[in-house]
Amino acid sequence: MGRAEQHRRLAQKGLAPMAAAGPRGRDGPSPREFTTVRHFMMADLGLSGLPLLVYARIFGFCDAGCGYFESKGGLARFLNVQERSVHRAIRDLLDRGLIEECGMHAPARGHATKRYRIVRERLPPGALATPDDSSGFPARKGDEMTGFAARTPDEMTGKPLTICHPISKRDNKDFRR
């Protein structure tokens, strides 16, 4: 299916404005900014509509190891919906126990925003890409890495790691000309 056919189908379903609107950076919409809706979000958690999109956005940040603290206005612009609708969707997700508030994000400039994270206990097995500290969720018993993944860089290379200092090529005895 070509791009024109995809756009036509989105337009028929009323989704073309959302796909075209996207977030705007300094140079317009960014093709690298997206949200992935995963099957378990619908099948296991029973989400649909705007709460599904909001959950998918928060999940994407948490699963990538980042905190989620986007403003509600920014999320509304990203999803091309009213800010009030985003407030209702977040309240719905909080009431269902699928997300939780975890503090505030206060940048040096600008407005403070609430931070949210996914409630890990509500996820089906295998939903997370990385179930360790880098996922934005605290590691739990049984989540420890083992085998190859648990090795430190020292064990993997055979050479001990030292503090890194720039060294010129002529002073580096390991540099081959």
Automatic annotation (TrEMBL):
Highest taxon, organism lineage: Bacteria
Region (Disordered): 1-31, 148-177
Basic and acidic residues bias: start-end ranges: 168-177
Protein name listed in UniProt: Helix-turn-helix domain-containing protein
